[in-house]
Fold this sequence. Notes:
2 copies of one chain form a homodimer. Chain A is mainly alpha-helical. The first copy, chain A, folds into 3 domains: 7-141, MgtE N-terminal fold, CATH 1.25.60; 148-266, CBS-domain (Roll), CATH 3.10.580.10; 281-451, SLC41 divalent cation transporters, integral membrane domain (Tetracycline Repressor, domain 2, Orthogonal Bundle). Chain A is built from 22 helices and 6 strands. In chain A, α7 (85-92) packs across α9 (109-117). In chain A, 50% of the residues are buried. At the A-B interface, α1, α3, α12, β3 and α13 of A face α1, α3, α12, β3 and α13 of B.
Amino acid sequence: MSAPTESTKDQRVTQLQEILDSGVLRPAGRLLNSLAPAEIAHLLESLPPARREILWSLVKPEFEGEILVALSDEVRADLVKDLDAAGWLAVTENLDLDDLTDLVQDMPETVVREVMSAFDDQHRKRLEAMLSYSEDTAGGLMNTDTVTIRPEVTLDVVLRYLRRLGEEIPEETDALFVVNRDDEYLGVLPLWKLVSGNPDDTVAEVMSLALKPLRMDMADSEVARYFETHDISSAPVVDERGNLLGRITVDDVVDVIREEGEHQFMGRAGLSEEEDMFAPVLTSTRRRAVWLGINLLTAFLASWVIGQFQETLAKYVALAVLMPIVASMGGIAGSQTLTLAIRGIALGQLTGKNARDLMLKELAVGALNGIIWAIVVGAIAGLWFDSAPIAGLIAVAITINLLFAAFAGALLPLLLKRLGIDPALAGSVLLTTVTDVVGFLAFLGLASLLLI
Amino acid sequence: MSAPTESTKDQRVTQLQEILDSGVLRPAGRLLNSLAPAEIAHLLESLPPARREILWSLVKPEFEGEILVALSDEVRADLVKDLDAAGWLAVTENLDLDDLTDLVQDMPETVVREVMSAFDDQHRKRLEAMLSYSEDTAGGLMNTDTVTIRPEVTLDVVLRYLRRLGEEIPEETDALFVVNRDDEYLGVLPLWKLVSGNPDDTVAEVMSLALKPLRMDMADSEVARYFETHDISSAPVVDERGNLLGRITVDDVVDVIREEGEHQFMGRAGLSEEEDMFAPVLTSTRRRAVWLGINLLTAFLASWVIGQFQETLAKYVALAVLMPIVASMGGIAGSQTLTLAIRGIALGQLTGKNARDLMLKELAVGALNGIIWAIVVGAIAGLWFDSAPIAGLIAVAITINLLFAAFAGALLPLLLKRLGIDPALAGSVLLTTVTDVVGFLAFLGLASLLLI
């Protein structure tokens, strides 16, 4: 009687996709509702609009809320756009408070009021409090379903208390929080310490003080780093007076880390981490057009620089043939430094303090690679066009551009960060501007001075 | 008596950095050893080599092992390069088995044998078994310190058993695994169910069957996705016969997710996610040179294409001025599609099944943006050079290049994936090749046909 291992899950998803492709929907519904909400969300995200609608219509209403919470913002907004007040009430009926707060942004205000009016006073106050925290802070990540105990009671009393709570104990509770009469946070009692400790010991004797509570206004990226460096699976959240507000569980932190990674990766191409792979064509076109427009400015700037040297180019066409190489080598080298710097900033490992060290190192690397590739490219170009001056020119231009690329790659992200601009989004466009302009200017400018 | 909140940690780190900068080392040591091992690792990674050595020399020997485990591969390799056998034995003395396996790759073989000879038979067999799993599988991620129980005993008996175990219960245990006499995995008993359940119920009545065990050969990225979709903090690992081998805890999964994100982000620039920000200049230069060399081939290919049209260029210098715009617009548009596709593949949301849907959508977006920007760029170029033919030429070339960019951006990553090549690493170079070559060919080729 061994339980089936996890490979069976993927088979169900594949099976489901085949059924959807075949168009016979009855068995799909049954299979679908045997999956976890997050699995269904994952599947919905991977389907083009038409089949996404079909799958969504097969989901049992009682699962809809949890699936919506697990979806990326864009896909969620798409699926709820036709939901009326009654639909919203049904969807939100069984949700935890922290999940509900995630959905509120998509709900019409009248619906929010209606949902709230169904709550008792305490529940409503809690929800209002949670809505007051920004989504990207500890307060926005936390859940309020904590079990609290007093420091002076014995473990035996705690065990009896939990047994009385029975089914009411929140799922996935892994620790109890110790508070005094004023609800001030004092420490944490992990369940493994509770069950392995001496029943006659008091909570105060056994509780752990090592885990510091997080302030409700701590940024979510800092929360994630705290979880990572302390290898914990939940943490208490307190207000500015040290009063316990709730707890953050690691599953929400995992989402933050995933999104941080995607933000950096997608931002580089001007895309949002919430981007729906199958967004409507017009929506996608509009968003991409903005990014293309910004980059077009860069491209025209580079063209304008080239335009200053039309005479030289008309005389030495070889320059036109070779000039993309100078710009491209600079762009590649610069983007390596930029990538390293953006990661360093995101991890909190690159600050004003060690920026000089990174800059010096990157300049040294740029100088060495500049010399190496100046020789290689110079030799090839010289042989190709049978011209020593052109060989010398491109060699010097490449060295100059690789040095500027290292400088800009290390400096730009820190500068942008200080200006409050996201380096992951703007860094790459600006860097290309620098390496294109410097590359063309050095190569064509030197040529105009020396060849003519 | 409220506990200090988490902001105090960052103060300690800042303080430490200031002390290091000032050169007075005694207080630094005390402060340092009050940090968590992962915090020290994080700090070491952010220091340039000289100060990194100093900080490392201040670390208490008993913390060194855990810090090494938390470091990125490159920084770790740097710090242990002078460690002798005695040093290694001291470092590895207090480590858990799963941490030890992470370090074995850096240890000289003689040291590995010496460490193993200090173990008892059971311990050694376990270590050998764990070393036999690849690092990027469930087996490589797991820990073997599980607490197992039988299904037929009552909760009361389990509680008494845990109390007898006392301190021996593994830290951070959040669930007990239920196995039969043959060690086959049957289910899981989370501690919160144990403490809230009726003491007279048997384990079999209370245990959860919803959590499927993971096969030891499951890829780590799949393990991560399983943890994410099921919001769990630990999972059992079994062998092909369903026998329990160990458990994976979420802190190790968090590292996998962080590394996956960094791999995509860094790979785009030809960097490894393990890259040390302060790697030695010569090491960095060598690695970057490889990437620059690969990209140089691309650049020369583009140059060669341009070289085919030297006559045309000599006659119409405007073409040389404008040609980077055509290539750049294609590169930007293509990289957006590529980024979307690489993320889709990494998340398992883009497969052969829906590739056609993505391709059609991206081609439509490419066509629309192609037309929009063809008009804009055509108008500007026409006015700039006062030439209707040039306006028409660049408009057509941009439309062609944006369509090709969408096609290549969607197709390349899937093709690379099928060939077993990492799309995050190779995708961007190949895409640039396509958009450069197509851009220059379309623009200059059409010009040669129509203008001359």
